[in-house]
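Continuing the batch. This is chain 6 of the set; chains 1 through 5 are on the previous pages. Same settings as before, nothing changed between runs. Recording input and output for traceability.
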Amino acid sequence: MIPSRSLWQRLSTRARPAERKASRTAALIAFSSPGQPVWTPRDYHALSREGYEQNPVAFRAVRMIAEAAASIPWLLYDGDMEVSEHALLTLLQMPNPQESGVSLMEACYGHLQVAGNAYLEAVEAGNNVREIYVLRPDRMKIVTGLNGWPDAYEYSVNGRTIRFDDGGVRPVLHLKAFHPTDDHYGLSPMEAAARAIDVHNAASGWNKALLDNAARPSGALVYKGVNGDASLTDGQFQRLKQELVENYAGSANAGRPLLLEGGLEWQQMGLAPRDLDFNEAKNAAAREIALAFGVPPMLLGIPGDNTFSNYKEANVTFWRQTIVPLVTKTCAALNHWLGPRFGEGLRLGFDLDAVSALNTEREQLWARLAGAGFLTHAEKREAVGYAPKRQEQE
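Output for chain 6:
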């Protein structure tokens, strides 16, 4: 997405903020190249093309995660009391004129799955945040300061670069997945699944080539000679080659019997697909892709996975082990980034009661609390996330 107009007007003219106290180990990070840009050390376009754009398993996994996480409604609390109307909630519901809050968060979560990094830009008018935009991670680079931590962000499009200084009020929120060997950028599930994606894509390409070759494994026509001839003449060779292309190649000619003249014999070369257990190898690669993204293979329609007894159990696991931790992490980052700008004591949360996949868990919790006679009514309400009734507070 092209950033807002105000972004283009903020060029890198502001001075570097004064050095602040930071981690004592940070100097070790910055020692080799202080103040230099640190580019993302991976090919985002290749991951996007080979993974998201051309692999159906990775595409569906990213879509499932992004759409599910973005569908959870935000909640806002002032202390312990829930707030139903507030400027922060309005901002998250309609972050900019081009997209809704669900669309913005869907793009944010999608970038996290493909690149391992996601960036949100806050556009301010006066001292208030008026709009939020998602910035593409392949266009963003981190500039480290003398203390080794990010000092600024530079966003480049069409030869133009805009600098966001990270001092004082932070204009950019950087969300990233954990990376064990990179201090500044995250590791995406797409990169972890890259080898399995290559195997799966190669298997699909092999299937296509096999169909184009009349759905037959490779082989050779061996000429044994007739009347003492040792080889075909040039004219015979060209005619044979033309007949094979016109009459036996392509999916339309699949299964058509090969008519051989005297002296010609078909000799198969290589193993048949059933000997290679080809389909199982492709399914194994698909299960590895699903594993990297945290999506149960059953939800992606991948055969051969019996980990879960039914679809409902797999769906609950998907929400509990993949979606809820992702949204929890994002909610904490948004609280740290936006909370102080809208007032002390404000805290963002999210509404899991709106997730129908977790209805069974919720009903079981209510049943257990109903039978817990040692808890008061107020304690039971607190256990399920509800505030005490007004008369109980009094």
